[in-house]
Predict the 3D structure of the following.
Amino acid sequence: MSYIVFDTPGPHAFVYDRETNRVIYISHADAESLHQALETGETNPTLQKYQQKGICCPSILKDIEHPTVPMMEEIASSQLEDLLLQVTQNCNLRCEYCTYSGKYYNRTHSSKHMSFEVASRSVDFFMERAKDKNSVVIGFYGGEPLLEFELIKRVVSYVEENYGEKKVSYGMTTNGTLLTEDIVRFLIEKHFNIIISLDGPKDQHDKYRRFVSGKGSFDVVMENMQRIRTRHPVFYQNLRTNTVVTPDKDMEALEAFLNKDEQLEGMTPGISMLNDSGNKEEFAFGPENRVVNERERAKLMLYLLDQLEEEQVAKTHRRYLDDLIFLCKTNQSIGKMTETAHHAGPCTVGVRKTFVDVQGNIYPCEKVGEVPAMRLGNVFEGFDLDQVKRLTNIGALTETECKDCWALHHCTICLSRCIEKDVMSRKAKLRHCAESKAEALTKMRDLCFLQLEGLDFEKLRSLQMAK
Amino acid sequence: MKLLVYPMNKSLAPLGRYADMVTDYDQVIPVAPRSFGYGTGDMAVVDGGMESGVNITYDLKAALEACDAAFLDYCPTANLDGKQYMDVIQSLVNTGRRVSISDDLQDFLVRHGYETIKKLPIEILEYNKNNIVLNEEKRLLDLSVPCIFVFGSGDLTNKFDIQLGLRKAFQKAGYTVMQLGTKKYSSLFGFDPLPKFILESGDSQQKVLDFNHYVYEKAKSDNADVVIIGIPGGIMPNNPYQFTEFGEPAFLIGNALKSDISILSLYCAPYPQEVLQYLLNICKYRFGSPTHYISLACQDMMVSPETLEFQTLSIPVKRINDDILPQVTCLGAKVFAAMDTEGMNHVAKQIIAELSENI
Ligand code: SF4
């Protein structure tokens, strides 16, 4: 159905109507009647009362299509914004969960690396198609990208020589083991945004992130970071860390380390859940993970209600604040639903991010496998537009369900969640629907709760999102 | 005489496309850095219009040697620093070329420590603040000639292209045109840009009166047969997530003058009929300008789903003619593609016919 009834702590009930994208405060009696109408599929006087006011009306949605599909040719020729070059498939570590560790379909470490010819052609391909973008990002990815530092330097010079009048920022995710002084100076000079993979305190980090010899990498990474901290404090403050949360992670210890370790003070930590797209093994996160998430979410809410100091909120969970700000900004009525629409969540593949592998093949991003089913063309021959449209328009996989789903505007499912054994799969996508709807409902509930508790939404809207 | 235009981008595109209308020069050399992604093709790559026969180059050095004069503008989206602009200006001045720059570029250079720009023998193009003749009357004066407004739903809606299209058609039909353009470089086409006061802060009532008197006096002194006014900015806020402007100049000008004909140029999209009617009602009731012509620009407007920022998408005119225009109809208004030369000519002729019947 295109509406949902829910409540928040205390005697409060709400209805969210997808057709108008509005949340309305209602009485408990009305909530119960609307619930009934939802369950039986039959109309009743309460439902009629709301429908007369234009709420909870039957949907006018006829077709599911991503809004960028009709203009894809124009979009793919002018709107590219983020080029990610896989400069090597090699790495000096052998992290157990890595997408190249052999645990994922069609991805393994190899000695293949990108040639300068492929790299420079990728830059040309990208710049020719970034005409409408005032500023762009060029990132370097691996394996471990710093194994190809000479190539990275050549690419940066190539960009400066040929595209100097474009605003370009550079980025890289590195395992942090190869950050020599020379490299750091170069990264500072070129204003790189750096993310260092750091999986928590020594025991947690070393459990997965080990050199080929089997030795843990924690000490080397922390030593490098300490040196940067001492010699380049400003650059250090702009570094970010990323932790991959595996199902066996001790979340309490991780939170304590990332939020309180003296050496990490002032840095921005991020966490990402282990990628299940294309993973050969099924895995699930345990209740400890949920407990920490719930607790930190609650603390964040208390902070918004001025009951806690900002420092008491885990930095790793600030992302949820971004989600609330975004929802708060976008929950203003969008007016009428259109006859053709698509659920939120997916980007325009190849445009939002252009991931180029060592051979010059283009893929949607680093989260999906480098397999023919995900290939969007290559930098020598151009985009395969039909494939770009198909992989963007993922709503088509679940057209019937989406037409009837109240969470259409708040869905978070993207292509990386619609993949099984490296091909698009309706089954895989539907597995994530419950989670996506639960997330949307949690955010909506939290916002309603916050508003009832007196949070000024304009204050929330005026906060800057970190991402 | 060859005029170099640098750095060529969407906002300077009319100078490249309508090179034949640029007065005092018989050729324009549009120079865009390679980073802009336009390559070395026709101006159509920049503005999405039809093939113009004018090609872009990124060989600035060769263009500097080949040109007789140059116009430079500040391009906020480019990674060009003060020194790069200054080097170009200085080399032109040193070789005795005539140089004009926009006041935005002058301000940028001064802000970045290049005060010396003020001492160089160059011309500054800006909204008109000279020779504003105002009448003593304390009432709005009636123009004795027809007046045409060109509204737009925002920046980059090809308003200036339409202003030039109208100018060309009226002049070709033998009429004398008094025109106030939305571009600061309007003078390169032989007419004045808008007076600066209409965009400055100040007493609205006074601005309405002053604008009315200014146009009245200028139409009289120019012996104009027709007045064409480009309306700066948009007509309403475009992005619900970021308030930028709401059409204040349109409101002031709409109150200062009565238009006989108005054109509203919109970001390109397959608008439903009721949206168009709503927009026409805004022109009619908010600006007092009944509008019967709607044009679709070679730009679509989108709000980034991630950052909620405003961004534009270039759409070639052929695509508009083939796929979008057939989907758009509006009762009581003619819809055309702004950058379709034939469509524009046809509309201009229709407007001339309409006005001559009234005269
Ligand atoms: S949760 Fe599932 S059914 Fe609902 S909009 Fe998202 S993809 Fe469609």
